[in-house]
């Protein structure tokens, strides 16, 4: 790589309903709307973590192939990870908001973390870095 590409700015996931996905990511996970624009019949909808730079494009699945990917874009692996300063606190808060988790946070060599699922079953890893 020649150094002209410096950072990841966005990626997309397919959703079945823009408004339901937007509500999950903003109301349940606390993301903020980065962009929400209409381009003809296309809706450009991007959310991001409050302090994050990477946008998550919520793209309406339009074809049969895209609909088949909803909730399975990373198979059963995490689609992405979220960093937190306090995994246990965020786990409790998100659980109270109705977020589904695959168990409770566990301490591992790479941090304290837990797997959660979005409204379609995509897995997201919530991780707190280990103390230095």
List the helices and strands and how they pair.
Elements: E1 10-15, H1 18-28, E2 32-39, E3 42-48, E4 55-60, H2 64-69, E5 78-83, H3 87-96, E6 100-101, E7 106-108, E8 111-117, E9 123-128
Parallel strand pairs: 1-4, 5-9
Antiparallel strand pairs: 2-3, 3-4, 6-8, 7-8, 8-9
Question: How many distinct domains?
Answer: 1
CATH superfamily: 2,3-Dihydroxybiphenyl 1,2-Dioxygenase, domain 1
**How far apart are the first and last residues' alpha carbons, in Å?**
31 Å
The biggest beta sheet reads: 5 strands, mixed
Describe the structure.
It is a single chain. By secondary structure, the protein is α+β, with helices and mostly antiparallel strands. It has a single domain, classed as 2,3-Dihydroxybiphenyl 1,2-Dioxygenase, domain 1. 20% of the residues lie in helices and 39% in strands. The strands form 2 sheets. Strands 5, 6, 7, 8 and 9 form a 5-stranded mixed sheet that branches. Strands 1-4-3-2 form a 4-stranded mixed sheet. A hairpin with a 6-residue loop joins strand 3 and strand 4. The protein is globular and about 50 Å long. The model has no long low-confidence stretch (mean pLDDT 94).
What are the main properties of this structure?
single chain; 132 residues; 2,3-Dihydroxybiphenyl 1,2-Dioxygenase, domain 1; 9 strands
């Amino acid at each position: 790589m020649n150094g002209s590409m410096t950072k990841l700015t966005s990626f997309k996931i397919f959703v079945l309903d823009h408004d339901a996905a937007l509500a999950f990511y903003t109301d349940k996970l606390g993301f903020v709307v980065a962009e929400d624009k209409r381009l003809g019949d296309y809706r450009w909808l991007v959310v991001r973590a409050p302090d994050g730079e990477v946008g998550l494009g919520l793209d309406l699945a339009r074809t049969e192939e895209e609909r088949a990917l909803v909730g399975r874009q990373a198979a059963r692996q995490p689609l992405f990870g979220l960093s937190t300063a306090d995994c246990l606190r965020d786990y409790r808060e998100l659980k109270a908001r109705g977020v589904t988790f695959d168990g409770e946070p566990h301490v591992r060599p790479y941090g304290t973390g837990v797997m959660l699922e979005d409204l379609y079953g995509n897995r997201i890893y919530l991780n707190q870095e280990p103390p230095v």
